[in-house]
Amino acid sequence: MHPRDATRIAKEKKLDLVEVSPNAEPPVCKILDYGKWRYERDKQRKESKPAKSVSLREVKMRPKIGEHDFQVKRKQVERLLKGGDKVKVLLRFRGREVVHQDLAVELLMRVSREVEGLGVIESKPAMQGRQMSLVLAPVNA
Alpha-carbon distance 70 to 113, whole Å? Predict the structure, then answer.
């Protein structure tokens, strides 16, 4: 079909003549509503984008933490999990505190129990040098 005829038909239908494949011989064109086509293409691209990347955030505490301080740290962990981030809870030991690793595990498990509805344990409590860590992942991720 000659380009003049295609343009005329497109104008009669109140649509656009869009070149689909310019490198083909002869070039391939379509008659369509260009604005609608572009809107649907952009919408499809947004849907196919990967989900938000999950970052690993850290919350640090000590084995001899006070009750109020613990509650503050727990709220911080909750806020981060609600935001969709993974949370690494670090327990730092000083001096002879490292002997009482059982108390540290108990404290980390208490954190995980108190945020149970928001996060799940991704890695169990583990020692790394003079600190013990626990990784929590958000439930919806």
Answer: 13
Which neighbouring-strand residues pair with 138? 119
Structure-token pair, residue 100: 């009482």
Report pTM: 0.61
Domains of the chain: 3-48 (3.10.20.80), 56-138 (3.30.110.10)
Collapsing DSSP to helix, strand or coil, 88 comes out as strand
Rounded Cα gap, residues 13 and 19, in angstroms:
17
Reported as a single tens digit per residue, the pLDDT across 82-125 is: 988 999 999 999 999 889 899 999 999 999 999 988 989 998 99
Element of type H or E holding 137: strand 131-138
- Cα–Cα nearest to 122, from 99, 105, 141, 101: 141
